[in-house]
Amino acid sequence: MSEFSLIQQYFTRATPSAILGVGDDAALVRVNAGMELAISTDMLVCGTHFFADADPYLLGHKTLAVNISDMAAMGAQPRWATLSLSLPEENSSWLKAFSDGFFALADAFGVELIGGDTTRGPLNLCVTIMGEVPQGQALRRDGAQPGDEIWVSGKLGDAALALAHLQGRMQLRETDFKAVESALHQPQPRVALGLALRGIAHSAIDLSDGLLSDLGHILERSNVGAELHLQTIPHSAVLSNYMNQTLGQHCVLAGGDDYELCFTAPASNHARIDHISQELNFPLSCIGNIVSGNACRVLQADGTELKLERGGYDHFA
Ligand code: ADP
Ligand code: MG
After folding, report:
1. Which of 12, 118, 128, 129 most suits a substitution to test ligand 1, by most atoms within 8 Å of the C-beta?
2. Is 317 exposed, middle or buried (0-12, 13-18, 19+ CB in 10 A)?
3. What is the pLDDT of residues 147-202, one digit of tens each?
4. Residue 165 is inside which H or E element, if any?
5. Is the N or C terminus of the chain more exposed, i.e. has fewer CB atoms within 10 Å?
């Protein structure tokens, strides 16, 4: 199969919201009046972000999900994506499953694939996503203020626990692994939450490298510090069995791959955020406060500070 028939067969779909989609030297899109274009790229590399034998359908899902998650974190409505692939071989069942997983999530979020690049090489998947946000309303990392409350969506740490099991660093019971596995393989981008937080949150980020590392980006960009209460950080029943060990604490605080949102908002918006949680039927937990200075302290139930060895995942650390 030629490169062009491969693109035609697996990656060409109708793109009614674009002026021009796959097939020309560039795609053409028009942003709605009053909107800014939010653009983000995330690359998944075989051996670094996923195992070579990863299920291709789930990989298609995750490749797009981690990008849509960046739109959610900006409070942007995801609209268009490009997909650049390097593939070691042309494997039609792999490509079919990968593109099915990719397009299932694209359809669920109204994202249209409008272009990309396809080459032979080590398996590498790179999406650029584009979304729209009303002028001046994006949720940025640099808006946190002392007095803000710090919130996270969903439950943290399950993906890291599933990964620890798969890497043989610990052994979960089969039923427990089944309960946490989907967090690792099928993250659900929190787009509705990001949209609801426009005008309510002062800052936001999505959790890809671990809570402390990602919250650390907000603190640095906003030039503030944080105080977190360990016992308020939401986690699953499976993870609760490990919370009195370094493993559980590490999964929740520094595990990575959560793809939940962490955001800060003035305390006066607390009730509105509880209301958003009810409307979306989805847990939002207040886990601490933004303070002046630049330290991030994690307090345990007895008020003592937890000392951690490392912050989160860093490819070059
Ligand atoms: P060019 O040689 O001009 O860069 P390509 O041959 O790389 O063009 O791509 C042909 C068309 O197919 C372009 O419109 C490009 O955006 C699209 N395309 C290539 N690979 C993919 C892919 N994996 N998914 C979606 N569109 C793709
Ligand atoms: Mg090209």
Report:
1. 118
2. exposed
3. 999 999 999 999 999 999 999 999 999 999 999 999 999 999 999 999 999 999 99
4. helix 158-166
5. C
